[in-house]
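pasting NAD(P)H-dependent oxidoreductase for the record, 203 residues
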Amino acid sequence: MTSTLTALAISCTLKPSPAESSSDLLARQLLDALSAHDVSGDMVRAVDFDIRPGVEKDMGDGDQWPALRRRVLAADILVFVTPTWMGQHSSVAQRVLERLDAELSETDDQGRPILFDKVAIAGVLGNEDGAHHISAILFQALDDIGYTIPAQASVYWNGEAMQTVDYKDLEETPEKVASAIQTAARNAAHLARQLTAQPYPAS
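structre below
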């Protein structure tokens, strides 16, 4: 019997709860797909938390990142979802990446980066171009701090330029997007299970 893995999805929408969010929808779809591979998951909407600017584990003065950080470190798979604004990932996504920068200096008892053996996948949404550009930024940053990126781990949807249809307003998930969700989830679960069974070597 395969062991149960865990996932944390971070939705980087600019909309505080309870507003509807396309980023939340895609994050939940990815978590649902992961659940078919014995991965239990949870989602947080980053904008609902007081994540202070900075690159330390704890910026003090009411900073709520430390509690989120514990959940990030506990998860085998990180699902990182962001909308596209002006061709870029959201400012909320950038804040999360900046706080994750602190993990560059964190190591485990074998001297390895603390996020080794963890897997990350990405979701990008928007009504303008930029999905490949944003995925490249996310994957480079997440790889830098120790995450491993599975094959075909980026899921994106870009609506028609200069139009107002959001992903959450579609009558059904486009077939290509649905297929990409399944592929990313399947490959992430497979890779995370392999790394759990055979971790990266000590430094």
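Helices lie at 22-35, 65-74, 91-100, 131-144, 175-197.
The CA atoms of residues 68 and 142 lie 16 Å apart.
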